[in-house]
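Hey team,

Filing this mostly as a record. A colleague (T.K.) asked me to run one chain through the structure pipeline before their review meeting, and I want the input and output archived in the tracker in case anyone asks later how it was produced. No errors, nothing strange. Just documentation.

Input sequence:
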Amino acid sequence: MELNTAMQDALNEQIQKEFESAYLYLSMAAYFGSKNLPGFAQWMRIQAQEEVTHAMKLFDFVQDRNGRVILHALGQPRADFESAQDVFETAAAHERDVTTRIHTLYARAVKDSDYASLALLQWFITEQVEEERAAGDIVETLRRIGDSAPGLFMLDKELGKRGAAEA
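Output structure:
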């Protein structure tokens, strides 16, 4: 079954949002790099790679369904942040927004009885649970750390252990 035009357009928008997510996380990595927090920067770089993988999963799906991928322009991501906590609060809010978008796509697929899209989007729904949890856990840790330089240093070392294989 071919992709209907409305779902194709919605998936093309989601491809843009996934690439914008990657761009945002790269901006966050650059921020952390400028603050000499290489572990935080590493975590965000891997997060950006994950988002590109998500975009390409959608890209391939549209093409596999005989649809047409139309890439949209990317907006400039936020570049300035107040603190590591501000960065991760922004990331957590961003992931909640992505979850809402995925749920909207899923509702469209239900309405259209588009079972192939439902299967794909279920994977994204499950993935978003993990994305929200990961960002939220780091926000909570940063709240506990507060202004503690040693705490921030230890968390930076811990986040730097995240490997590309996880993405």
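Quick notes for T.K.: The first helix runs from residue 5 to 34. The mean pLDDT is 95.
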